[in-house]
TrEMBL record:
Residues 9-221 form the NAD-dependent epimerase/dehydratase domain. It comes from the Bacteria. Pfam families: Epimerase. This is NAD-dependent epimerase/dehydratase domain-containing protein. GO terms for cellular component: cytoplasm. SUPFAM superfamilies: NAD(P)-binding Rossmann-fold domains (SSF51735). PANTHER family: NAD(P)-BINDING DOMAIN-CONTAINING PROTEIN-RELATED (PTHR48079:SF6), PROTEIN YEEZ (PTHR48079). One of its GO terms (molecular function) is aldehyde dehydrogenase (NAD+) activity.
Amino acid sequence: MTASARRIALVLGASGGIGGAMARRLRDAGWTVRALKRGLASESEQRDGLLWLRGDALDAMDVQRAAQGCEVIVHAVNPPGYRRWSEWVLPMLDNTLAAARARGATVVLPGTVYNYGPDALPHPGEDAPQRPVTRKGAIRVEMERRLRQGAERGEFRAIVLRAGDFFGPDAANNWFSQGLVTPGKPVTRIQQPGRDGVGHQWAYLPDVAAAMAALIERRERLPAFARFHFAGHWDADGRQMAEAIRRVVRARSGVAPRIGRFPWWAVRLGAPVVPLFRELAEMRYLWRKPLRMDGARLAAELVRDGGVPHTPLDAAVERTLESLGCLPVGESTGAGADARRAFS
């Protein structure tokens, strides 16, 4: 494919976990990938095979300029941490939708389970009613409503892929790296957020990105507003993720970490004054009751493309811990190497 024929995608949030995974996946599939970044020293710079442009997702003109000539816009940008969601999330999305509307581009949104309230548990389908009980969930519902409205009007196409809690290389703002383990430190203790016996859904970022990229290639054959669920890794008893971390650490260091409880009491105490703790407390119902999304619709769509990408759990955990700096330097157990080959 010549440089002039290369397809162009804009990834908003390429500095983050899922945005970064998507940018790399599209780059490796032959796309020209643009990424918007605040505070860049120059107007643009080529790095890691991506074209980084100085700009802000909150600035409509920055997004419009970056989206020129783009067929796809991946909207994976979020406010840092859990701060200022109510102020920033919808204006950022509106800027993306305006740019997509002007160019007839496809908008791709990494979705979450936050759309669903307790009434939808334990097995919500893609089209299940969305009655969230949290502020963040309500914003997520509104994001999808605006996507659907624009797609049904023929202004752009939209793809939503909902997944469980993310984990994976270069992903820092998630339950794996902020709850179960501590980045940059050897794993001596694993904090389990959920109750024993309560299942939980996890999503390995390279797998999610690969599935999204496959949907992007099929975008013209999908409904104008297409929603899918990503099954990922189902932790049936709430302990399998912690046990996988323990196995990987023991194989690399010879020491098996203890598995303890996440300190929800500290979250409750800090919730009145710490915005992050308040958001975590609101989402606790997802650790008290199981929520498992069925990936049958996605599997049926990707059956001719080799199926839904799925890295074995121990391989995914090892690669994640390596990226977080939680494992001693040395030989891989082999699982992580297998995972790297699968996505090379």
